[in-house]
Structure formats: structure tokens, C-alpha cells
Amino acid sequence: MPSQEATALDAPEPKAPEAKAPEAKAPETVAPEAEAPEAETPETGTAETETPQTEEPDAEAPDAETPEAPDAEAPEAPDAEVPEQAAAVSDTGTAAPETDGDGDGDTPAAAPRRRWRRVLGGWREKYPVAARVLAWTTTAVALAVVVVALLMPTQADKFRVAAFVRLPVEAIFGAALLIVLPRKPRIAVAVFAGLGLGALTVVNFLDIGFNEYLGRGFNVVLDWSLFSDAQGYLQDTFGKGGALGIAALAVTLVIAVLALVTMSVIRLGNLAARNTETATRTTLVLAIAWVTCAALGVQYAAGIPIASEDTMQALQFKAEQVRQTLRDEAEFAKIAKKDVFANTPPDQLLTGLRGKDMMITFIESYGRSAIEDPVMAPGVNATLTAENEKLTQAGFAAKSGWLTSATYGGGSWLGHSTFMSGLWISNQQRYRTVTAGERLTLPGAFKKTGAWDTVGVMPGIQKAWPEQKFYGIDKLYDSHNLGYKGPKFSWSTMPDQYALTAFERLVHSKKHDKPLMSTIILTSSHQPWAPIPKLVPQDQVGDGSIYNSIEKAGKKPADIITDSTKSKQEYGKSIQYSVSSLINYLVKYGNKNTVLIFLGDHQPIARVSGNHASRDVPVSIVAKDPKVLDKIADWNWADGLQPKQDTPVWKMNAFRDRFLTAYGSTPAP
Questions:
Q1: Element (H, E) at 54
Q2: pLDDT digits over 407-417, tens only?
Q3: Where does residue 513 rank: exposed (0-12), middle (13-18), buried (19+ CB within 10 A)?
Q4: What whole-number distance in Å separates Cα of residue 68 and Cα of residue 512?
């Protein structure tokens, strides 16, 4: 064949001998394919008739039509006469460069493509049934990919077969557009649409993950910064190698989704263009069916309409979310500047707590589900009852209520800042805004009086923490200066019992000219709740080395992280451990002037708390001095460490002002 091509190009004049050569070789080559080009171009000369023979582009044209007409294996003259439509795309959805009609097939750059097409053409001729099966399978996969991308829910509990057996209006409009477009614009539009749909699919996956872990969808403006925290969590849970592997897998999946969806849209667009009449009829029928189902409100079940416009609604929602996020930044900045206690003189702040040692303690992921869920509640409530009896025997009393956290499943710092600033800090943007200002926080209010020293014990902080100044904390004890020599327990840098023991050794037991106002963050109940520390005799805590054997004997994150029931069980045990560690400390080291406020920062993830759990967390105030609890008698909180089901529920940001008012602070905006 290469020799024929050279003869045709170099010696075009001897037409008669060359015209006979193809007929003589017809039995050895694929004769039908060779004849079709001769019939097409009787007036173009030998060079033009032989070029199709050597390149054999039309050998694939019949195969492209075989899915619709498997018996028509002979070349079709109409296809050959309209190369732009018939041969623009091969069976695999690849554009055919030889049929652009602009001579591309004669350029040097087209030679590799011609060789590739000759190989494919030979394979199809040798295995026609396999070729047809592959073509149909590829088309079916492409159709399934596009349908799934258009109809995919954003919450894991909504995945069901009925959700994917619907009519997406976006597919109908897209098909209509691709049918009427010429080849090059069609390819461009298909690529653009495929990349857009692929990107939306990735965002949908992020929505599923965020709904599962944080109880809300992914915010395309604010949530990118959370990936660094997620990477740190994975590294603490699975090790550095495991975290890198998961990150690499995630990046690979994103690229694969974008490529697969884009290629699927291109293939379906090309198929519709090759079969214009059939595609047009099918699109028209589907459009009529969609309009009918939409008008009649036909549904498979409640909330699953057959006529779907999920993708359009998702895009509208994301666009509105972006607008609201940008508006919220300016509006919240104005709200944050208004503080009813901003100008209160120091001598008029917290007059009802003068002389008291204050402790504000957050227990990680201590949510309402721990007290009410049938799996966790029995163990947690038994612990709360036992610890309340310890308090009573030691002369303490407690009152408990509910607060609705600004976050869910994670983002503990949002809950901390909401509780202590009196502002609803529900996203990272608000957090940055408030911490950059001079809002009066609860620790800051104690500091402003000049009557307390303020300290922070925060074992979860492992790097610089500029927010220390905003909160009004004079001295910070983080993971690096608590003297811990034991192992990490997954994400938690040290057991709660050790953190409290270190607080006693380094801070509370020392002589002070003023009472202490201490902010303590306990982290042992942080997911994935494996391994969990155990209580050890107080005199054996030491530098934490005793925990080495406990950590080694504990469960591994991989043992429970994918099992909802096991996660619930281990989560409940972690809450029991944290509460017991705190109450044991209070009973041993507290006195008549000790006042403890402890609460959860947010609910655990949905896999543990449930897909429709509230954002409520328990909060308790514990004191020996009865006057302390008398000042909040009108709050109608429950006695003891367990709030009741009908105990009042407040938004978490309401606590600061209620607390300051109850204990004698005078508003002065």
C-alpha cells in the first residue's frame, strides 16, 4: 500500500494503468471499501481515487452505522457523499480527521491518525461482533454516567433506584442543542458541558461528605480552607502514609470524574449527530413526556418527581449561596461591632462571681444524641447519674440545659467562639471577622475586671494560635507545654485525665494573687473514637508514659470508622471517659469557690447522631456555693447533670449575654 500511495502522488499522468490496479487487487484488499471512493470521485483522477484506498477511511463508516443497521455491511454511498456528518466520529467516539473536508488527511500531522484508524478498521473487520458489542457497551456506559451525574442526590440517605429512573430536563435540552450544531461547535459545546457537569458531580460528592460529617452542604466560597484540617485529621487517624494515599486517591478520582463525564457527553453528542433523524424523534418524545409529567406532578414516591430539573436547581442554589455568602460578610461585620457590654466599666462586670475560681470546659462532640440515642444513651446516662452522685456527696450541685450549636459534626472552634462571643459564628468567614475584632468574650470579660487571671488549657492546639489575644487569655498551655510524654490517641494529643492533671500541677495548685478564670478544651471524645484512653489511678498519671500500653491495646480507627453501630458504641464510651475525667478532677481538687461550666461544642457526625439529629448540646453549671445556682433559678434548667427532654433550648450565642446579666454585669453599648 505505501508504494501505491507514492505512485499516485509522484506520477499522476498514467491514469489508465492505475485505474486498473485497484480492480486487480480487489480480492486481496477490502474490495467494497475500495469501490466506494471510486464511485464518488470519477472525475478527480488517479491520485484522488487511490488516496482513499490506502487510508481506507470509509472502511469504518459502515461499522459506525452497524448498531442501527447490523445487516448493512456494504458501504453506503450517502455516508460517503456527506463525510462531515457520516465519518466525523468513529465507533469509539473519536473524531475522524480525514473527513473534515479541508484536506487535513493529507497533512503530515494526520499520518499517525491514519495509521491508528487503519489498525482500528482492521480490528473491526476481523471481529465485527465484538466491535458492535464494544460500541454499544461504551454508549450505554456513557449514557449511564451522564444520567447519574444529572440525577445524583447530595445526601447519602437519598440514594435509591427511583432517584435515577427519571427524566432530566437538562439532558433533553442538551441533546436538542447537540443535534443541530455543526461538528466543531458541537465538540466544543460537549466539552464545555461535560467539564461543567463533571465539576458539579465533584461538588455533589463534597455535599454528600459535608452532609455526612458537618450536617450541611459544601460552601464553594468558604470551605476550601477546611481541606487542610481534613488532611491533618487523616494524618492523625491513618498516619502520614495513609493520609497521602487518601489525598492522592481523591485527586485521581476528581480527574477521573471530569474526564469520564466529559468523554461521555462527547460520545453521546456524536452519536446523536450521526443518527439525526432517530435522535430528533427520541428527543421530541422525551420532551413531551417531561412536560406532561411536570404538568401533572407525576411522582414515583413523595419527593421523587419523574420530571427532574435537579441540576438546574443545584446550580441556582449554589449561585444563590455565593451571593448570600458575599452579602453576609458585610452584614456580619456590622453586627459584630454592636456589643451591649462593650463599654461596661470593669467594676460593673461579673459582680456576682467575685472571688470564684471559674472553669469553662468544652467536651469535644458532646451532643444531645449522647443522652437520647438508644445505642449511646444507656451508658452515657448511667455515667452522668453516677458522676452526679459523686458531686452531691462532695457538696456540689448542678443545673443543666440545652444549647443549639452553630456547627455540627466538626468545626469545634465555631462552637467555642459562638459560646464565648455571643455571636452566631456558623462559618469560617464569620470566625475570621469576629476574631479580627475586639468583641468582648467571656474570658475577656473576666480579664477586663482585673479581678481574675485568665489561662487556657488547649491540648488540641499544635501550632501558633493568634486568637489567644482575641479571647483575652493571658497564659496558654497547648500540646507543646503540658509536659506529655505518652502516645497520641488518634487525633487527640493526650488523654483528658492527663490534661486536667497537668492543669492542676502547672496552674491550679500554684499560689495566685487572684482567682483563676480557666478555659479548658478536652479532646479525648474527638472522632474517630479509637483508641479511647482509660482512667488510671491519679498518682500514676505521671508524664503520660503509662498510656503507651493502653493506646496499643485499644481499637484501631479502621476497626470502627465504617461501621455506624460500632462508631456509636465507641463514641458513647469516649463521652463517658471525658465526663468522668472532669468530674473526678472537680471532686478531688475543687473547693467552695470553684464554679464549673461545661458543655459540648457540637453534635457528633451524622453517622453517629443520625441524619436528622438536632444541633443541641448539653450544658451544665456546677458549684458548691448555692448562691451561684440561685442566680439562674429563672432559667428553668434541670437539676443535676442531665437536662430533660423538655428543658428549655437556647441558641448557643444567647448564653454570653444571659450569663453576664445573671451574674451582675451592666449593659453599656
A1: helix 46-55
A2: 999 899 999 99
A3: exposed
A4: 89
* Average per-residue pLDDT for the chain: 84
Share above pLDDT 90 across residues of the chain, in percent, rounded to a whole number: 62
Contact indicator for 310, 168 with CB cutoff of 8 Å: yes
Cell matching residue 598: 461545661
Amino acid at 257: V
- Beta 357-363 vs 594-600: how paired, if at all? parallel
State yes or no: cis peptide before 466, omega within 30 of 0. no
Helix runs in 467-527, H state only: 467-471, 496-503
Cell of 441: 468574650
Residue 398 confidence (pLDDT): 98
The one-letter amino acid code at 331 reads E
Lowest mean pLDDT among 64-68, 127-131, 138-142, 227-231: 64-68
Give the model confidence (pLDDT) of 35-47 as tens digits: 333 334 433 333 3
- 525: closest CA among 497, 492, 501, 499? 492
Contact 543, 563 (CB under 8 A): no
d(CA 257, CA 199): 8
Q: Which three cell numbers stand for residue 68?
A: 442501527
- For residues 610 and 628, what is the distance between their CA atoms, to the nearest angstrom? 36
- Of 621, 637, 559, the residue nearest 586 (C-alpha): 621
Q: Are 594 and 608 in contact (CB under 8 A)?
A: no
CA separation for the pair 448, 669 (Å, rounded)? 16
Look at the block and give the residue holding cell 420532551: 287
For the stretch 249-302, pLDDT in tens is 999 999 999 999 999 999 999 999 999 999 999 999 999 999 999 999 888 777
Residue type, 107: T
3-state secondary structure 160-211: CHHHHCCEEHHHHHHHHHHHHCCHHHHHHHHHHHHHHHHHHHHHHHHHHHHH
pLDDT tens profile 156-172:
878 888 888 899 999 99
Residue count of the chain, please give it.
669
Burial group, residue 425, by CB count within 10 angstroms (0-12, 13-18, 19+): buried
Buried b (16+ CB within 10 A) or exposed e, 216-228: bbbbebbbeebee
